[in-house]
Amino acid sequence: MEEKLLRILAEDVGQGDITTELTVPEGRMAEAEVIAKEDGVVAGIEEAKVLLESLGLNVEALTADGEVVKAKQTLLKIHGDAKTILAAERTLLNLLSRMSGIATTTRNLVKKIQKAGLKTKVACTRKTAPGLLYFDKKAVLIGGGDTHRLHLDDMVLIKDNHIAIVGSVEEAVKRAKEGCSFSKKIEVEVTTIEEALTAARVGADIIMLDNFSPTQIKEAVKQLERTGFYGKILLEASGGITAENILEYASTGVDIVSLGEITDSAKTLDISLEIVKLQK
Predict the structure, then answer these.
(1) CATH assignment of 155-259?
(2) Is 115 a catalytic residue?
(3) pLDDT in tens, 140-183
(4) Taking phi first (over 0 means left), then psi (-120 to 50 degrees means alpha), and beta for anything else, what does residue 89 get?
(5) I want to staple 172 with a disulfide (CB 3.0 to 4.6 A). Which of 59, 149, 166, 277 is the partner?
(6) Residue 264, SS3 per DSSP
């Protein structure tokens, strides 16, 4: 984690923080506070501590990942070299703001489904920012959602392009089962009810109903019930699901709803850093 964070910082700093170098006296010590400017679920506290402490700064965390915070609440106190604090400021805030925004979005969706009396899981997708997969996925977990696959080696997920190349759902699943360890689940992305029934029949563990409408999902559930597969295989709805229509999808009988917008377009949480004290 420290290596990832320092690479992100290095990308921002470049050859050095020229403004700070020109204006801040050498050896000046400072105290700073990281403050939430709006309500939300905080995430990235662990990463913030790792980054700042790796730079020789002292950090006091006043909140923990997953806590609900209020506007004007102090999240962290930082003490150390003023130049270092200022150089790390934007990287620190970008990470905290993004992770907290994703965690907040996820928590709101999870609570919305729970409030409706449903047990459907909320999952993200692999639509993460390049280089930030670990942090985006961890933020979803902190918010109470499911990370889905972290990496391509986590499970077998047969998508439309795999099927197009191999020729059929049946052949793709057959090939996967022949070469796959018993420890890996096999999921198949389907676009029709017929493909869903085939995937169930040939032994898929999970069926992803891709870009199905709620009405089409209900019909697929009905067909899977009729053939005896419903309840024996996990069903995931994905594609076209938003915060506005998530309850329509979650109430169709699927086990999981996955949304790309959790990570690819979540609103960041507004967080700032303020210098509160200087020491000579």
Answers:
(1) 3.20.20.70
(2) no
(3) 999 999 999 999 999 999 999 999 999 999 999 999 999 999 99
(4) alpha
(5) 166
(6) helix
